[in-house]
């Protein structure tokens, strides 16, 4: 029974920003169908910040692409509260456009009238603390600034669900830490739901209200943790470190278990 992505248009849209029910995904391989995700069931509540954690190749990005509607599950169903916005590891900005025009393009695709786009783009740049950067070209921006523009462009889609696929992985530690603070602030100000993919345990604990650990090949939900540490948090905070150690041990168990198969 294969089903495709659907937009929630009933009461469940209030209860769930995303609902993933018994989702499996297979791809054709040299020896036949390869099962990548196996029977994933997961809800993301409105306004909730959830991180998906796991070793490389466990299917985290595949699951995110399914939720985004870029691919269809082999089995199961996915329902979202409207169309999600997706932010990748690479900023994917158009280099021939300015920061503001990159955002305006998303606004144009979203049906925002031409006369309103400049003001809205400026507002979004202010939200990500890039005031005065509307006219800057991509090559004039640092890596962290480019990711801020990419975030503003994602927010321009007016989605209630933001999907983030390791957006800070390529950044240095200091810039990444600053953007953790900024993302937390924006999440709290906007009330967005966030589903965030990472392989960095401390990043997962630093950001999320709930951490979901996927096992490897095929990806299954191995365990989840609710993070009851008040924000703002820091990577080096003792409670963050303590929970990160616990999750890391479980992750190592999953990796060892896979290595013995």
TrEMBL record:
A GO term, aspect molecular function: ATP binding
UniProt domain ABC transporter: residue ranges: 18-243
Keyword Nucleotide-binding among UniProt keywords: yes
InterPro entries, per the entry: AAA+_ATPase (IPR003593), ABC_transporter-like_ATP-bd (IPR003439), ABC_transporter-like_CS (IPR017871), ABC_transporter_ATP-bind (IPR050166), P-loop_NTPase (IPR027417)
Keyword list, A-Z: ATP-binding, Nucleotide-binding, Transport
Source domain of life: Bacteria
Gene3D superfamilies cross-referenced by the UniProt entry: P-loop containing nucleotide triphosphate hydrolases (3.40.50.300)
Name under which the protein is recorded: Sulfate ABC transporter ATP-binding protein
């Amino acid at each position: 029974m294969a089903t495709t992505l659907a937009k929630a248009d009933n009461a469940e849209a209030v209860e769930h920003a995303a609902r993933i029910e018994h989702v499996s995904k297979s791809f054709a391989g040299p020896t036949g169908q390869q099962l990548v995700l196996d029977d994933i069931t997961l809800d993301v509540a409105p306004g909730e910040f959830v991180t998906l954690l796991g070793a490389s190749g466990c299917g985290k990005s595949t699951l995110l692409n399914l939720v985004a509607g870029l691919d269809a599950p082999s089995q199961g169903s996915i329902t979202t509260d409207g169309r999600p916005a997706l932010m990748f590891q690479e900023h994917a900005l158009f280099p021939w456009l300015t920061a503001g025009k990159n955002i305006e393009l998303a606004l144009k695709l979203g049906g925002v009238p031409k006369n309103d786009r400049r003001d809205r783009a400026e507002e979004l740049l202010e939200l990500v603390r890039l005031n005065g950067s509307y006219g800057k070209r991509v090559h004039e921006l640092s890596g962290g600034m480019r990711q801020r523009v990419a975030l503003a462009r994602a927010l321009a889609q007016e989605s209630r669900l933001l999907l983030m696929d390791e957006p800070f992985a390529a950044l240095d530690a200091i810039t990444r830490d600053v953007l953790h603070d900024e993302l937390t602030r924006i999440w709290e100000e906007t009330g967005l739901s966030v589903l965030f993919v990472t392989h960095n345990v401390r990043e997962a604990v630093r950001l999320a209200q709930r951490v979901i650990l996927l096992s490897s090949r095929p990806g299954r939900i191995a365990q989840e943790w609710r993070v009851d540490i008040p924000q703002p948090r820091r990577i080096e905070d003792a409670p963050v470190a303590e929970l990160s150690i616990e999750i890391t041990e479980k992750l190592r168990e999953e990796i060892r278990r896979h290595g013995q198969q």
